[in-house]
């Protein structure tokens, strides 16, 4: 592994730890609402960037896949305005209308 791959990997792991930590520990819905899409897009760009260090073709394959993944994650997760809980759809077309934790409307 050369230095460039190591840097990509370190940045990815750091981002993952920060993202998970912020989303799991924070009760501030406002923070989660802007942090969640930002981190998803950053993760997507990181994966595409990492693929690009291998070959430009790999990046072209990963770019639409990551865009789809980011869109899916944004669609699957809703944050409760009342208690700050992170609510996830169990199935992609589940109706996510109420908070699992406090029952407030989402
Ligand atoms: Zn709630």
Which labels suit this protein?
single chain; 106 residues; mainly alpha; 66% helix; binds zinc ion
One letter per element, helices H and strands E, the order comes to HHHEE
CA(first)-CA(last) distance: 46 Å
What percentage of residues falls in helices of 4 or more residues? Answer: 55-70%
Please give the oligomerization state of what you see: single chain
Query: Which percent band covers the strand fraction?
Result: 5-15%
- What low-confidence regions span 5 or more consecutive residues with pLDDT below 50? none
Anisotropy-based shape: elongated
Number of self-contained structural domains: 1
Rg, nearest Å: 16 Å
Number of strands: 2
Can you summarize the main beta sheet?
2 strands, antiparallel
Which ligands are bound?
zinc ion
Strand order of the largest sheet: 1-2
Structural class: mainly alpha
Total number of helical segments? Answer: 3
Mean pLDDT: 86
Q: What's the short version?
A:
The chain is 66% helix and 6% strand.
């Amino acid at each position: 592994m050369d230095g460039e791959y190591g840097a990509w990997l370190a940045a990815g792991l750091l981002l993952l730890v920060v993202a998970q930590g912020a989303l799991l520990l924070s009760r501030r819905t406002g923070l989660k609402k802007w942090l969640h899409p930002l981190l998803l897009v950053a993760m997507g760009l990181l994966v595409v960037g990492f693929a690009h260090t291998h070959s430009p073709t790999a990046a072209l394959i990963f770019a639409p896949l990551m865009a789809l993944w980011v869109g899916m994650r944004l669609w699957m997760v809703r944050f409760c305005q009342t208690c700050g809980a992170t609510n996830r759809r169990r199935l992609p077309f589940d109706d996510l209308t109420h908070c699992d934790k406090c029952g407030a409307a989402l």
